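The authors assume throughout that readers already know how a fold can be written as discrete tokens. For illustration, here is how one protein appears when written out as sequence plus structure tokens.
>
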Amino acid sequence: MPKLIFDLLYDIINEFHNDRKTLLSCLLVNKFWCEITVPILWRNPWNNLTVSNEKFLLNLLIKHLSVESRNNLKNQGIRFSLNSYKKPLFNYISFCKHLDLCRIHGLVIRSEMFIIYDEILRLFINENNKFTYLYIPLDFNRPIHLFPGFKKLELRISKKDNNHRFIRLIELNRPFNVSLSTSYKSGMHDEEFNEALELSLIKYARRIQSFSLTKSPNTTDFLSHLFNLTSLRLNGNYGEEWNCLKHLSLPFLQTLKIGGFIQAKFLANIITSTKGYLNKINIDIDHHSDINNQRIIQAIYRNCPNLKRLKLEIKNNNISELEPLLRSCKYLNKLHILKRNNAITNWNNCFKVLSKSSPTNLSKFKFDCRDINEFQLDSLELFFDNWKVRQPMILQFNSYINLNIQYKDFMRLIDKYKKKGNIKYFVIKSAI
């Protein structure tokens, strides 16, 4: 039971992994909450780091130094405060999954304690630490292929980057996976760089498991070679044609994240090309027509039997398609229904389908709405009543909060079913 509570609370707090203010407030609840929150907060300590907090972070890193290291630095003229000798409450560095060498370099430069740079690097770069992301400054002169445990590499290539060292990183001769996150734009780089990049991607396509694009490329050849992808993220701009996706086949794809403006026929084609491995789909798009929305939903329930997490818009006319989706995706445990541009106007029917057809594992819900007043309390009460024989739900509403009488009635209804045990946790986040 304690592990179940830990896992549930971890999932909830982890939803706010990009909300530093909320995470800091979670630290103060009690020791149990603190022990769960610290690893999440320190997964990427550089995220949203302000200049005013840099000194505090550097002092905390210094606390991790061994006595021997501090004495060596002291002999070289560095003076530490007595507070820096206190052992930290946690081994914070062990939780770090993002090694940002750019930010570390900046911390040291602004502190004017240049000789501590190598000591700080050694805190992170050793056999005990494993990182998911590595951020490297252009003038970094250490051989990254010698980093212990180096297995994955993420390259973020923007329109300003023409540095051929990116190519050499892709071609490192050792077994690792490449996650290439890029706003790659043909025409914004020189032709030599474009050609070298594409040839390298094709040559080492078997190593690339994760790929991200924020603009449709002018050339399509290299995409067709990335058949080993397990994760794909696309974010299109208005007016772009994504014909490069027309015949794309990704049989091993597990995660699909889509945003912006990408045609539904291409998304349906990608989903159809998978071989049942897809377990997470996030389609953050609200401009598809009813027919195209239906096309995507049907592609999902016809090709994704192992789906566990789903985020998508459901048009009002397609609520009936929700039932076969729920029946086919029997491992689904988390559902996030977007609501924009009046996509769902009949939440009553939506809740009826959810209470009738939800698979056994489904217990985590997010609902987007413009106003809590959109929900009829009778409909919600019936939804909660029908959930009494199921696993208690974790429920989140993303909505504009209007502190009127109906909102108070809504919260009383939530409290009623929390006490009954139908609702395990409840969160309402303001959409404004």
